[in-house]
Amino acid sequence: MQPYYFDLSHDYTRLRREAKRFQNKTDYFSFEQFEIVEQKILFEFGLILGVNLEKYPKFFSYVLEALISNLPSEWSEYYDIYGRIYYKNNRMGRKYNRHPLDEHYKKVILEEKHRVKSIKRSIFC
Question: Sign of torsion, CA 57 58 59 60?
């Protein structure tokens, strides 16, 4: 796959809208099982979460889980006048331009990347 650059605000909305196509594919065990179009969506969303699925293809399950994750109960999804997605915390009244669980998945992916790197280092030392 060639390097791909995208506009985060519009592409984030596009990727989130595409999440519905993955609802019945949670039992896939390999990145390669997805259609090329779906691989591109997962690849792009992976970049938003801080992981390159070409380098770490086994991380696709975290990316998929993040992409299809439901909103916590106190959150709602809206679209602004330009069609961009945003989320509102109904309890606190604050608006955010990212899904509230994205940061959680970013942390999980970062921790897993560190774990994989430390295992590789221990093997080669």
Answer: positive
